[in-house]
Amino acid sequence: MNTIHYxxxxxxxxxxxxxxxxxxxxxxxxIKVSRxxxxxxxxxxxxxxxxxxxxxxxxxVFKDQSVLMKYSFLPPISEWSSQTLNFxxxxxxxxxxxxxxxxxxxxxYIINSIFLACAGTSISLxxxxxxxxxLAKYKFKGRGFLxxxxxxxxxxxxxxxxxxxxxxxxxxxxxxxxxxxxxxxxCAVFGIFLFRQAMQGVPNSLVEAARMDGASEFRIYWNVMMxxxxxxxxxxxxxxxxxxxxxxxSPQLYIQTHAKLTLPVILNQYLGLYLNExxxxxxxxxxxxxxxxxxxxxxxxxFVAGLTTGATKG
Length: 314
What we know:
Layout: H1 3-21, H2 30-61, H3 88-93, E1 97-99, E2 102-104, H4 106-137, H5 143-153, H6 162-171, H7 179-182, H8 189-200, H9 204-212, H10 217-228, H11 230-245, H12 249-254, H13 263-273, H14 278-307
Antiparallel strand pairs: 1-2
């Protein structure tokens, strides 16, 4: 047995002593405290299981290639030196690689992914929220059929439209252009329904009051509706950003210039390029998870609130 086993035995041994061996006369609240203690143990273990892969990743990106497979995490403190812990993996990652267009550096792929994720999220957020507002607050002929048609389109897998979409993009000369990545996903039906459901909860009296005050329809949408559905906006921003950030298939199909590729595509290529240097690949992976992590911590309150919108009735 190793140290982890001994720690687990000690933790559950303390629970057993508290729960069964200590008499109630000595510790009247032993049942309540022991249950809380057991729940804390399981929560800590669950958190450790979630955090361990990230700790392992951070440790491995700073280890030298010579000790990468020797230790699971960091080497013993007595062996810490520039020969075991260094920035060699990041140095190799940012050295740049040759392509038909010249030398391409890793930071260019990061900028490409950030631009596409931010631009795609902004465009989709604007169009889906505007469409959701129209479906939620306007009564027009064919509205029911349109909603039915949109809901029916969600039943078909995206792969079914891959071949015709590729043919369309090729014929309109969008190959090797970022338009092929931004326009097809500019207005997702899923997002339209999310905003429609959220905006249906806004009283119509607020919209009518704004109209009576002389506000234009766009100003009502922007200054009245959007602030009231902020939790849904935050949740949808995070979901859409992650989808655009992790998009692998579309850049692989439509982008031909090496300097225009995104992080998911180039990291997949690094699996072959750095087959015997996993530290370089892991360094790129660590950098690739930082922007989504920052966005999640910035929007976590809105994300949780948006997911629970409509779960309860007040």
